[in-house]
């Protein structure tokens, strides 16, 4: 098996099966589709030139988005028409019954007829007004976010340099104002939040880098790759001195974020100050397939990995030895996440479930299975208290209480498949990235707070793969990355006020 992961036009996770969604890349048969996906996922080069292949994928994505919008709008409008038609039929039946009744005299007949005509006119006008308002509301829901959302969410700056799709973004946990990104271009990068400069580039993997996470307390990072390995390497960087320009207020990003095709040619930025690392401190081996995700346990002494070989592994960082192999999922794993305070792990899979692994008792490693989605679970993350949030290709996000595994306490239905979501530990706000290039913010009660603005010059132009919160002292407190090679820093305001109101 070639170890390389998808190029920017191919999805990381196994093929989705949502029949309502039109997709150019999902029209193959199941067997052929899986074979093609595996071939592309493992890095087999196409016969087409890279520039032409990239352009084709972009055109396919545009066609897919237009069909999705039209189908979704048509379905909603059809429901409204059927509902109004039923109301009209009910009224006509009542009207026919009234016409069949005998009147006392001619004057009464005339009075009844006048009232009926007046009632018919009023009802007709009411139906027209209701229908117009409903359709206007439906159409507006497909437009860019409202003015309130736009003022609440602003793009501060882009982080450019990757030459292929970016799978994951993560904020440092040991005090430095940096973020890390993992890309299909076989590299991981560290960026300075305040300037947008790339400070370090890790080149040790021979396959797509699918995940990056920082050590809880030390300048170390772990990356998971399509080469079947996870690497631990030193992530210490020298921070640049901030100038007055970089200390200025956040901008909307209109001048920096141009949606033209020229950004697809080459987004690399020359920087002589980038530190290059090619050799890891520790190599974690043992998986027979692509490693899709890796994370540190709360004490920083162990690492858990999730793989397409349907297993998760627990490693000792000091010795690089495999401690446990976690089996139970029936299909490929898509994500893993550790609890920030306790020795708990959640793994998600394309088998429509996610599992909670408990390592608090060294003698008993219990596992609980959460079943509530109808398609692949793309991510599961811990929230405040005893809650877990899961996102799925079935276009739902569910909030679960670890003490009650049978039913979710909150279910959020959205209009597109969900990718690697994140939860702000400070405000308990979920940032949900979608296949349709949107990013939405919800609280844990399912209340929609905002939709991040997106236009031809702002936001992501392809599928958004991941989001990450950074809650302390930075102009950017939310980051997103996607297939368009972009990493965007956002400033989300008003979260503290909304938290206080609740």
Structure description:
It is a single chain. With 502 residues, this protein is an alpha+beta fold. Helices cover 23% and strands 31% of the residues. The protein has six helices and 29 strands. It has helices at residues 30-41, 50-99, 106-140, 147-152, 262-265, 495-501, and strands spanning 153-158, 166-171, 178-183, 188-192, 198-202, 209-214, 220-225, 230-234, 275-277, 282-284, 291-296, 302-307, 312-316, 321-326, 333-338, 344-349, 353-361, 364-371, 377-382, 387-392, 396-401, 410-413, 422-423, 429-433, 439-443, 448-451, 464-469, 478-482, 487-492. The strands form seven sheets. A five-stranded mixed beta sheet has the order 2-3-4-5-9, with no helix packed on it. Strands 1-29-28-27 form a four-stranded antiparallel beta sheet. A four-stranded antiparallel beta sheet has the order 6-7-8-10, with no helix packed on it. Helix 2 (50-99) runs antiparallel to helix 3. It is globular, with a radius of gyration of 26 Å. Residues 7-30, 97-119, 131-148 and 249-270 have low confidence and may be disordered.
* Radius of gyration based on Cα positions: 26 Å
Helix percentage = 10-25%
End-to-end CA span: 52 Å
Mean pLDDT, all residues: 80
- From the spread of the alpha carbons, the general shape counts as globular
DSSP summary: helix tally: 6
Task: Give the percentage of residues in beta strands.
Answer: 25-35%
Q: Name the strands of the widest sheet in spatial order.
A: 2-3-4-5-9
How does the helix and strand content classify structurally?
A: alpha+beta
| Major sheet characteristics | 5 strands, mixed
Poorly predicted spans? 7-30, 97-119, 131-148, 249-270
Count of strand segments: 29
């Amino acid at each position: 098996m070639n170890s390389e992961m998808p190029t920017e036009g191919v999805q990381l996770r196994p093929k989705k099966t949502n029949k309502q969604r039109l997709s150019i890349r999902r029209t193959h048969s199941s067997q052929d589709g899986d074979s093609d996906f595996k071939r592309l996922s493992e890095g087999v080069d196409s016969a087409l030139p890279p520039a032409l292949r990239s352009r084709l994928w972009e055109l396919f994505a545009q066609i897919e988005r237009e069909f999705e919008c039209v189908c979704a709008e048509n379905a909603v409008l059809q429901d409204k028409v059927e509902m109004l038609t039923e109301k009209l039929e009910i009224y006509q039946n009542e009207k026919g019954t009234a016409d069949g009744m005998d009147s006392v005299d001619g004057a009464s007949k005339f009075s009844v007829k006048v009232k009926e005509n007046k009632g018919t006119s009023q009802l007709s006008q009411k139906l027209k007004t209701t229908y117009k308002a409903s359709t206007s509301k439906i159409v507006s829901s497909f437009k860019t976010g409202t003015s309130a959302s736009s003022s609440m969410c602003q793009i501060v700056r882009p982080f450019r340099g990757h030459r292929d799709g970016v799978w994951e973004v993560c904020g440092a946990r040991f005090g430095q104002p940096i973020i890390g990104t993992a890309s299909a271009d076989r590299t991981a990068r560290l960026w300075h939040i305040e300037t947008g400069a790339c400070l370090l580039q890790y080149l040790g993997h021979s396959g797509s880098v699918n995940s990056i996470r920082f050590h809880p307390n030390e300048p170390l990072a772990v990356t998971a790759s399509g080469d079947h390995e996870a690497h631990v390497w030193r992530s210490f960087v020298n921070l640049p001195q901030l100038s007055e320009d970089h200390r200025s207020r956040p901008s909307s990003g209109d001048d920096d974020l141009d949606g033209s095709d020229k950004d697809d040619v080459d987004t690399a930025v020359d920087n002589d100050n980038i530190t290059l690392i090619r050799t890891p401190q520790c190599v974690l081996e043992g998986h027979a397939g692509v490693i899709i995700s890796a994370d540190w346990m709360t004490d920083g002494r162990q690492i858990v990995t999730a793989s397409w070989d349907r297993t998760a592994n627990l490693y000792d960082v000091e010795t690089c030895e495999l401690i446990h192999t976690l089996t139970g999922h029936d299909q490929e794993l898509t994500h893993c996440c550790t609890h920030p305070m306790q020795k708990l792990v959640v793994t998600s899979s394309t088998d429509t479930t996610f599992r909670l692994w408990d390592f608090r008792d060294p003698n008993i490693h219990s596992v609980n299975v959460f079943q509530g989605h109808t398609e692949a679970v793309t991510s599961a993350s811990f929230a405040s208290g005893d809650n877990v949030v899961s996102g799925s290709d079935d276009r739902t996000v569910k909030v679960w209480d670890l003490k009650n595994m049978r039913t979710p306490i909150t279910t959020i239905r959205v209009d597109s498949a969900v990718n690697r979501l994140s939860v702000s530990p400070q405000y308990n706000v979920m940032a949900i990235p979608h296949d349709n290039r949107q990013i939405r913010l919800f609280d844990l009660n399912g209340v929609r707070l905002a939709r991040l603005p997106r236009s031809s010059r702002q936001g992501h132009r392809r599928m958004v793969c991941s989001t990450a919160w950074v809650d302390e002292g930075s102009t950017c407190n939310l980051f997103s990355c996607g297939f368009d090679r972009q990493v965007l820093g956002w400033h989300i305001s008003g979260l503290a006020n909304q938290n206080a109101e609740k």
